[in-house]
Design a protein that fits this description.
The protein has 23 helices and no strands. 74% of the residues lie in helices and 0% in strands. The termini are far apart. By secondary structure, it is mostly helical. It has helices at residues 2-6, 11-26, 30-42, 44-65, 68-80, 83-95, 103-113, 119-130, 141-149, 154-171, 173-176, 196-199, 201-211, 217-231, 239-243, 246-268, 270-278, 283-298, 301-308, 313-316, 324-340, 345-354, 358-387.
């Protein structure tokens, strides 16, 4: 799959091709493979993801046409003064809203606040800072799994994994500060910062319905979109042109390709194969590598947690008590894999927005990832030394 992406093959083709290759290598029958591909088109998860992505894209389009992103960007600029810090803060702000493809919401802010940056640089900044809270914010599904299944108290997660948020933020600075601070005449700074929540109400409504009232996220986003259209009905003229774009069709095959790839990863027994290959190695290498590979293959935190953590559970919960250094190491490896994965939804959906390609963005992400991963390993060694 990586080779295909390097050859400029669209992700909608590379994803199912990568899944087919994995199915062949793992010995799955042609019949089972074809069935799983067809199931991907009617899989409820595919339908939900498609609705969420399309609804978020349409909401973003309408908010852009209504000049709301300009107003919100102006507020971030007024608060932080420096357009570079404002861009990172806007992406991080949206990061508190745990929704698939959330980088698509923060992308317009970063685009407006970093006018002198190349598109590939904007995309990398947006992608990186959108995810800095995922190490400890318990509303993310991966951490919710750890809290509910492993019974690890949220405070322990914050205490041990929280510092990695600072590490991740710092590791993005070489890119974020690559260009000089810039005045942006097109963005007025007269907006009252307290207006931010009032302007962002559709986004907050969608997440609030999902989190507070436990409404399915796809339905919550559609309700927020419908409410926005009713309130701002003058913007409805932009809906038909949006629907008729070819990227709507691309999104169908993109989503089904993701679900197909994910089903092949789970059916192929990759985690068990990794266990067999690494079970005689150093425990720390095992705990780091298995989540790393699973994170890279799934591109989602709850994916690597639910697949790899049961495999390394003996090390994570010796005697039924969580080993915090190993939890740190396993999560750091897994999340690094997620951030580097071409399967990561946020990475996928923002390539079209920024009109760039994954191969152009990867050098920036890999550099920041290496800094974060190295710092995480050093942090693990210090924590292990202090506890022992």
């Amino acid at each position: 799959m990586i080779i295909l992406l390097a050859k400029k093959i669209r992700l909608e083709i590379a994803l199912p091709a990568g899944a087919l290759a994995m199915a062949v290598i793992s010995g799955m029958s042609i019949t089972d493979t074809v069935v799983k591909w067809l199931e991907a088109f009617i899989n409820p998860r595919s339908i939900d993801l498609f609705l969420i992505i399309i609804a978020v894209m349409l909401l973003g389009e309408l908010m852009e046409k209504g000049n709301m992103f300009d107003r919100m960007s102006s507020i971030f600029l007024k608060i932080f003064k420096d357009n570079r810090i404002a861009a990172a803060a806007s992406a991080a702000f949206i990061g508190f809203l745990p929704m698939p493809g959330g980088s698509l919401i923060s992308a317009p802010f970063v685009d407006k606040l970093l006018p002198s940056y190349e598109n590939k640089e904007k995309m990398a900044v947006n992608y990186w800072y959108r995810h800095i809270w995922e190490y400890f914010f318990p509303l993310y599904a991966g951490l919710a799994w750890i809290v509910t299944v492993m019974k690890v108290p949220p405070y322990d997660i914050f205490k041990v994994l929280g510092p990695m948020t600072a590490v991740m933020a710092l590791s993005g600075l070489p890119l974020l500060l690559k260009h000089s601070k810039q005045d942006i005449p097109g963005l007025s700074t007269v907006e009252n910062p307290f207006r931010l929540l009032a302007i962002a109400w559709p986004i907050i409504l969608a997440v609030g319905l999902s989190i507070v009232f436990s409404i399915e996220l796809a339905l919550a986003v559609l309700i927020a979109l419908a409410a926005f259209i009713v309130k701002e009905r003058h913007l409805a003229v932009h809906i038909k042109p949006f629907i008729l774009r070819k990227r709507t069709v691309y999104t169908i095959f993109l989503v089904t390709g993701m679900v197909f790839f994910d089903s092949i990863v789970k059916s192929s027994g990759i985690a068990h194969d990794l266990y067999e290959a690494l079970k005689g190695s150093n425990p720390a290498i095992f705990v780091f590598t298995v989540p790393l590979v699973c994170g890279f293959l799934t591109g989602i935190t709850v994916g690597f947690v639910s697949i790899s953590f049961p495999v390394i559970y003996t090390f994570l919960m010796p005697g039924g008590v969580v080993d915090l250094p190993f939890l740190l190491l396993g999560f750091t490896g897994g999340f690094l894999g997620v951030m580097l994965s071409p399967m990561h939804l946020c990475l996928i959906v923002t390539t079209d927005f920024f009109k760039t390609a994954l191969r152009e963005v990867y050098p920036f992400i890999i550099k920041a990832g290496l800094i974060t991963g190295t710092a995480g390993i050093c942090y693990y060694l210090c924590l292990r030394y202090l506890i022992n």
